[in-house]
Specification:
Elements lengths: L4 H7 L3 H21 L4 E6 L6 H9 L1 H8 L6 E6 L3 H9 L3
Parallel strand pairs: 1-2
Amino acid sequence: MRARGIAFAVSSLPLGSVALAIATAITIVASASASAEVGQLRISRGFGVHYLPLYVMEEKRLLQKRALAAGLDGVEVEYLLIDGGNHINDAVLARS
């Protein structure tokens, strides 16, 4: 049986890893309020359908809504378009 179209590609995404990524991002946002120094969350993403959950999160502002519901007002979320693991590692190490 052969699947066609983007619907198959999206439905084959591992939901457990998407949920883990969202939970990790929310944890980072929650810990930012405890230090009161960090008000920004940067999320790197690249090209491809496997980044689709991050594009949806950005478009619907899901992290901002979740942070506001948790009582964390004023959290700035920045989505960076960085493709390739080595470039992401360089950005993390440079703290940019």
